[in-house]
Amino acid sequence: MTGDRSDEELPADLDVLIVGAGISGIGTAYHLKTKRPATTFAIVEARDALGGTWDLFRYPGVRSDSDLHTLGYEFKPWRKKHAYAGGSEILGYLHEAVDEHGLRRYLHFGHRVVRASFSSGTGKWTVVLERTSDDATFAVTCKFFFSATGYYDYDEGYTPAFEGSDDFRGRIVHPQHWPDDLDCAGKRVVVIGSGATAVTLVPALAEEAGHVTMLQRSPSHVLAWPKENKVANVLRRALPTRMADRAVRSLSIRLLHEMYRTSRRAPNTFRRILRRRMTRVLPDDYPVDVHFNPSYDPWDQRLCVAPDADLFEAIADGSASVVTDRIVRFTPAGIALESGRELAADVIVTATGLKMVPFGRIALDVDGVPVDLHECITFNATMLTGVPNYAFAFGYTNSSWTLKVDLTGHYLCRLLDYTDSHGYDVVTPVRDDRVVGGGPFWNLTSNYLRRSADAFPTSGADGPWSMEQNYYLDRKRLLRDPIDHPALQFTHVGQPVGSSTRGDRRELPPREPEQHPTLPQGR
Description:
Layout lengths: L12 E7 L3 H13 L5 E5 L7 H4 L11 H4 L15 H14 L6 E3 L1 E9 L4 E8 L4 E12 L23 E3 L14 E5 L3 H11 L4 E6 L5 E4 L4 H9 L2 H25 L1 H13 L8 H4 L12 E4 L2 H7 L3 E5 L2 E5 L2 E4 L4 E3 L2 E4 L12 E4 L2 E2 L7 E2 L3 E2 L5 E3 L8 H21 L4 E4 L17 H4 L20 H9 L8 E4 L32
Parallel strand pairs: 1-2, 1-6, 2-3, 4-17, 6-21, 7-16, 8-9, 8-16, 9-12, 10-11
Antiparallel strand pairs: 4-5, 5-6, 13-14, 14-15, 17-18, 19-20, 22-23
Helix pairs in contact: 1-11, 5-10, 6-7, 7-8, 11-13
């Protein structure tokens, strides 16, 4: 692994500017570099390292809850024996992807995007950035602006106000900013929460702590699943490498799809599957209905995964336990509960969720008019109505994030190819039906998502307006369907953008595509 930083200066003018150097930004850069070698682009990242989530989160046990056969890139197959990996291993994989495909020179760290303004007069975005090393601000221009920022606030996680927290004599930490000096060996640790972070943390902490208690207000669905995909490993032994890569990825995608479809069509059947897999490990008299039988159906909220049943193994051997109750207040020695019980604690971990922010909280405007993201509707789950030459990467909530990132990268290149070949400068999704939109950006009911719903765009019920959670449908509409959809308005520089109805769409004569010039370097 080489150093994070690129020695290249950020060009003053670009074809595409990518914001974010995590899984999404790196994947998109690969597609641009390989499919459109004449395109000038750069990746800007506010932090001083690549990796996004996998560099930020350093809590014990941090890992994927998707298998790496699908969380990994299509262009860099995961070939290790185990299908689930820890955060440091995933971060190493991302560094390998960057170096193997010559992407490091496009990375520019310590560059925080403050705002971006699109001008129909120039057909370009003017992007204002802040250089974190000296707080200097400067601007660059680009034809296309791509958001690969993820969906949560990197600066702080979500922690509710707990009465009495100042009285607690121990230490309170949030997993998003795990302190390097925290030693839980031999201590009583209470993890507040029941989501993916808590399910990951509890068995990891239980290896050294005196005891770990997962304190939850209500249960979550948790799937005990093998860390190793034995079928994939058999295929790798039996088939040539590239053939095995394709087979393993295809089978892994199909498995995720069918599991989700079964959970939605036959939720009670899926509940029984979850129960059967956990009770193989838990003691016979364990109160499963109290601690692991949620009131909501599987995948109404994100399904948690326990690789090799690690959470249930920790409960079974006594190093961890689950308490389902409500918090009254923190006390000097722990947490007082509504049941009258007090949980003694030396360390309290608030695994209570994330603060959701859309597209890096970057202020956008088009011809001086601020963009209200909640008034925008998603188009093909990659673009926004009324926002020209703009796209975003947003992965699946019911499957691996990267599956959607790969499709989005393909689509971006197809879209740019079309505009170039037809001589257009600007492409803008426009609302072709006043009744579309208003639906949720997310398909889940988790509290941390509902808290932020008004900040995000909306979606439609079907067609290009929907935010699908279906890889096969997205593969069709992003890779195969014609680019020239009636809801896309293609224009030239100086022509108005963002018509509000289908009837306003302008059909313009094509002109010869421009050659990509050698661009000046600047700050």
